[in-house]
Amino acid sequence: MSRTVSSWILSSARNGVVLQGKGRLYSICIPNRNKIKWKLFFSKTRLYPAGSSSLDNVFSLKAFRHTSTEEEHFSFQLSPSQINDILRAGELSHKILTFNGKNANSVLRFESNQLASNTPIEDRRSAATCLQTKGMMFGVFDGHAGSACAQAVSDRLLHYIAVSLMSRQTLEELELAVECMKPVLPILQWHKHPNDVEYREITSQYFENLRVYWQHLLDLDTEPGLSLEEAMICAFKRLDSDISLEVQAPQENELMRNVALQVAFSGATACVAHIDGVHLHVANTGDCRAILGVHEEDGTWSTLPLTRDHNAFDEFEIRRLKREHPGSEEKTLFVNDRLLGILMPSRAFGDVQLKWSKELQHSVLENSCDVEDLNIYQYVPPNYHTPPYLTAEPEVTYHKLRSKDKFLVIASDGLWEMLSNEKVVKLVAGHLSELNVQKPQLAFEKPVNLGYMHSLLLQRKNKGIALLDQNIATHLIRHAIGSNEYGEVDQEKLAAMLTLPEDLARMYRDDITVTVVYFNSETIENYYRNN
């Protein structure tokens, strides 16, 4: 079926309004006294942003694609069990083991989940315990222009950070083991979902480049080594450099050559947390986000942001880019709120089209045979004069954990487009209170009004929803795509959002990946008591 001649017709079961048009479907919400009407408009240039507040009142239940020759019908009806099966498919949870009934780790447990909008999903996630150094690491990676870069970064970045933190002695032992062809001590203990993608065919190549990196660290001959902030920055920049160099190096293996091309010419943002005792470091490149949920002494909950979104809406990023490029480019650095009119985040891995010279791009693609089959094309944006315009260098935030810091949320922008920081903390806190049979008083709760009272009635009606999801990440995703104007999950909206056809879903929601890390307050309190 040709999509170029197709049109979408959606009908609302609630108000019977039929919305139709030709071309690519976009939507806008138009308030009309006491009800919301939806109007569809069609554009070849502008995508109405997923997660806009205007999407909060979608109740579409039926859709069919109409063409000049046939109709294709879609059902938006899902049973509660089918909804749960879809939402829970990506669940991952891990509880830290205790010894003699005690857990010396400041991490109590973590819970994670993801929901695809793109096919295949372009988000990735990682979680691992450091075996040769101290601490645990958690990462969320948001890919664009494909999943290849996010996949590579999720597989490799935590290793680069772990190696950056190793003592000289440990690095020497690693190098000696490789030289003598002896087994190498494992660097990380991964905590993976059974369905997490792995490309074992290229692991050996990645290991060789990791080895070159630790050899470089040995050549630096610095003691006592890098600080944690330095290690994270160095690891991010080195991995991005390796991604760039790997695609330039001659490759006899066709698979390796094609993977290197796809990784370099796609992109990924990254947010990684390293937790060692009470020491929390968060390194962020792009527009993933990390926040802390803080339980104040008066029983209220507050939010502590640990990252800034690196994009055209951040004044620091705008000033940074202006410093790095001539004044003549000041008005062309950001066009339509995108870097050079192309990319929303202003920091990312890969995306060599915004880092390399025109000549280098041409040279690499000219010498590659399968670029069209891989959907890779040279595109030089207007006003491309002084590359690189994009960097993978992260911004690192340090926070010393307190007993009132209860959980950390790391998520891709698909979540934050739908839910505010405060709403996320409120939902996690409420979920905790359900588990603890204790309802918290929230600092940012609205004054009581009719809408709020209606919300409480809906809470009673849907009493089971919070307990429905044992995994808090699932609970957040459920609310992100299914919440109504009162902040409660509307089952009809949820069903509609989960059954949108592939070429329509991305207009209403992005891939969503969430990891929530719960802290062990007792361990944190013991640290301060003993120190």
**Which architecture of the largest domain per CATH?**
4-Layer Sandwich
CATH topology of the largest domain: Phosphatase 2c, domain 1
Helical amount: 25-40%
Tell me the Rg in angstroms: 24 Å
Summing up helix and strand content along with how strands pair, one would put the structural category as alpha+beta
Low-confidence stretches: 1-69, 438-442
Strand content: 15-25%
The CATH H-level homologous superfamily of the largest domain = PPM-type phosphatase domain
Pfam families: PP2C
Protein name: PDP2 phosphatase
Family: Belongs to the PP2C family.
Keywords: Hydrolase, Metal-binding, Protein phosphatase
Task: Explain the overall architecture.
The chain has 16 helices and 21 strands. With 531 residues, the protein is an alpha+beta fold. It has two domains: 359 residues, 4-Layer Sandwich (Phosphatase 2c, domain 1), CATH 3.60.40; 68 residues, no CATH class. Helix 2 runs parallel beside helix 4, helix 2 packs across helix 5 and helix 2 crosses helix 6. It starts with 6 loop residues before the first strand and ends with a helix.
How do the helices and strands line up, and which of them pair or pack?
Layout: E1 7-12, E2 18-22, E3 25-32, E4 35-42, E5 60-66, E6 71-75, H1 80-88, E7 92-95, E8 107-115, E9 123-130, E10 136-144, H2 148-165, H3 168-179, E11 188-190, H4 203-220, H5 228-248, H6 254-265, E12 267-276, E13 279-285, E14 289-295, E15 301-305, H7 315-324, E16 334-335, E17 338-339, E18 349-350, H8 358-366, E19 395-400, E20 405-411, H9 413-416, H10 421-435, H11 450-461, H12 464-468, H13 472-482, H14 491-499, H15 502-505, E21 512-519, H16 521-530
Antiparallel strand pairs: 1-2, 1-5, 3-4, 5-6, 7-8, 8-21, 9-10, 9-11, 10-12, 12-13, 12-18, 13-19, 14-15, 14-20, 16-17, 20-21
